[in-house]
Amino acid sequence: MSFTSFEFWLLVAVCVTGYYLFPARIRWTWLLGISGLYYAAAGPGFLLYLLFAVLTAWIGGMAAVSGKKAAVALPLLLDFGMLAWLKYTNFLISCLNHFPGVTLPYLELLLPLGISFYTFQSAGYLLDVYWKRCEPERNPAKLALFISFFPQLMQGPIGRYQTLSPQLTQGHSFDDTLIWRGICRITWGLMKKIVLADNAALYVNRIFGAYTDIRGLGFQGVLMYSIQLYADFSGGIDIALGIAEMMGIRLDENFRQPFFAKTLTDFWHRWHITLGTWMKDYVFYPITLSEWMRTLRQRSRKWFGREIGKAFCIGIANVIIFVVVGIWHGPAWHYIAYGLYNGLLIAAGGFFTGSFRKWKKSLGITDQTAWFRGFRMLRTFLIVNISWFLDRSVSLGQAWQMFKDSFGSRLWSVTVIDPSDPEKCMVRFLTIAAGCAVLLTVSILSEKGKDVRGMFLKLPWWGRILLLTGAMLLCALYGNMDDGGFIYANF
Predict the structure, then answer these.
(1) How many Cβ atoms are within 10 Å of 369's Cβ, its own excluded?
(2) What is the DSSP string of 56-110?
(3) Domain count across the chain
(4) Residue 398 falls within a domain, yes or no?
(5) CA-CA distance, 387 to 407, in Å (whole number)?
(6) Are residues 119 and 184 in the same domain?
C-alpha cells in the first residue's frame, strides 16, 4: 500500500478520524490495529516476521534489564540473524559460486518490506534497556506499536523508544493547527515525490538502464539521481511526519538541507539523520570505547603522534561504520564500495585536518569567507554525486564504466527519455527545473531558520485550501503518476 495510493489515504483518513473519536486512554490500541492492517495489506506473511521482531524485543528487553551480556546478545543475534538470512544469504551464495566446482542453488526468500528499519529500531530499544537508558516495556502490545507504527514502518525515520513510545500511548487532544501543519507537510512531501522524484526517475532509469548504449550521460544520470533520491526519500519522510503530526505525534527529523553541507561529514549529519545517530550511538561509540580500540589508540599515538594517532583510530571507526551502512543498503559489492568510498574520504579528512587548518591560516582564509563557503559546498556536492555512481549502479563494473564514459563530448540530453517526442521531454525537464527552484527556495528559508509552514498557517483558511488545491493540481498535471513506489521502502 504505497503512500501515493488511494487506499493508503483512505486508511489515513480513517486512522486520524478514529484516533480523535476514541477515548484518549485507548487511542494507542487503535493505532496498533491500523498499523497491523497496513502491514498485512503488503502481505500477510510479512506479519510473521514483524511479530518475531516484536516478541524478540519484548522478551529480550525483559531479560536485558539484568545487565548480563548474554541477555541482550541473544535477541540481537536473532534480530540481525533474521535480517542477514533474508537479505544476504543469496549474496553469500553468489560469492561462493565463484569458486571452482561450487554451484549452490539460490533460495527463494521473502524479504519483508521495511525490515531494516524496524530491526534497527527494535535493536536500539534492546541496547537502551541494557545500558539503563530506559525501563523495559512490560506490555508487549505497546512495544509492538513502537516497532510497527505505520507511517514510519517502511522507510523511517528510525525512532528512539524513550521519545516516541510515550507519544504513541498517551493520547493527544485535538488541535486544528496540528491538522493544518500535517496536511501542509504531507502535500509538500507528495509534490517532492510525484513532481520531482518520479519525473527525474525517467532520466535515471533510462540512462542507468541502457548505459552500454547511451554513452557520456553519466553525470546527467547521477545529477538526476541526486534529485530523485533526495526528493523521494525526504518526500516520504515528510509524508510520515505529517501523518503523525496530525495526531500530535512528533517523529524525528531525518533531513536538514543536506546539499548545503560544506564537508562530507557535514552531509552525513544532514542526510538520513536518524540512521546516522543510530550508527553513532550503537556502533561508533562502542567501537571507540572498546578495549581493543583503547589499546590501538595508545599505540598509534606512539607511532604517529597525538593528533594523527587520534585521527587514525577515529578513521578506522568511521570506515567500519560506513562499510556497515553500505551493507545495509543492499547485498552487493557496489554497495560495500559505496560505504568504503564515504568512510575512507571521511577518514582522510580527519588525517589532514591540521594541514588544512595551517594552509587556510597562511592564506588568510576562514570558514566564514563567502567564496570559500561556496567552494566547500560545491566540492561536497561533487563528492556526493560521484558516490551515486556506486549507489545507483547494479555492479562495480557498471559504476566504473559510466564514470569513465562521463568525460566525453556528450554530457547532456533533454530528449534521452523519448527521442520521438522532444516536446514532451522538454515539459518533463522544465518541470524538474521549476521543482528544483522551488525546493531550493524553501531549503534556503529553512536553512536561515524560517518556519515555512508557519507562513502557510498565517494565510486565511480559504487561502490555505486554494494553495493546497493548486499543489494537488500541479501533481496531477505535471507529476509522473506511473511510478508510485518509494526507493527506501525496499530496505
Answers:
(1) 14
(2) HHHHHHHHHTT--HHHHHHHHHHHHHHHHHHHHHHHHHHHHTTSTT--PPPP---
(3) 3
(4) no
(5) 16
(6) no
Taking the chain (491 residues) in runs of 10, the rounded mean pLDDT of each run is 84 96 95 94 86 95 90 93 92 90 87 89 96 94 96 91 95 93 96 95 94 88 96 96 97 96 96 95 92 88 82 91 92 94 93 80 81 93 96 94 85 89 93 96 94 92 93 90 74 70
Q: Round to whole Å and give the CA distance between 418 and 4.
A: 25
Distance of alpha carbon 42 from alpha carbon 376, whole angstroms: 43
Question: Of 146, 170, 194, which residue constitutes the final position of a domain?
Answer: 170
Supply φ then ψ for residue 210, to 5 degrees.
-130, 45
Same domain, 316 and 359: yes
Determine contact, residues 4/194, Cβ cutoff 8 Å: yes
Which of 136, 115, 148 minimizes the C-alpha distance to 58? 136
Give the whole-angstrom CA distance, residue 268 versus residue 253: 14
- 441 and 460 in a single domain? The answer is yes
**Are residue 317 and residue 343 in the same domain, yes or no?**
yes
Distance (Å, rounded) from C-alpha 353 to C-alpha 351? 6
Could you give the CA distance from residue 266 to residue 98 in angstroms, rounded to a whole number? Answer: 39
Cell 541494557 found at: 130
